[in-house]
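Field reference: "sequence" (input) and "structure" (output). Example, Thioesterase domain-containing protein:
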Amino acid sequence: MRGAALAFCGGAAQAAPRTPSRTAPQADVYLLRGFGDIFSTGIDEIGKQLQANGVDAHVEGHQAWRFVLNRILTDQRNNPRAPVVLIGHSLGANAVIDIAAALEKKGIQVAYMATFAATAPAPLPGNIRRVVNFYFKEHGWGLPLTAGPRFRGSLDNRDFSGMKDIGHFNIEKQRPLQDEVVRNVMGIVRSR
């Protein structure tokens, strides 16, 4: 993993999620938290929103990225048409890029990626269709993402430097951003 960052936060619980179908997943949706596996509670909230909408979303700590990669590879062998969605905050944002790079080597596409305040992101591999990155040009941890040599997808880097009360520690907790990410994922899942 590249870089390190701390994230302090607090978050509110949401309604209990509906249990997703146990048939083949409609999408491989994974969300990775940042440092310490106790921070990045906004990632937990996005996961809960997706689960409440019937999406089989999995939330893990950034250090579990190889486990997540192996789960996606297994799922894709069983259901290669299931879109892959990756979401991460801080070190989790770095990790989802690493997962995408490993998936590229296996010929697996990533339909959508959302990253919040990546601390040391690798260049984006060529297998990602759409990326939205929330970062800080002037303050706080969080860097813009860059396209790698094979990347031909859509990259939307959004600088939140000018937002007075938003920083590395709470970017993923912003309700409008959470709602946007959930809408984007639901659009992918529902289009199947």
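Residues 84 and 113 are 9 Å apart (CA to CA).
The first strand starts at residue 28 and ends at 33.
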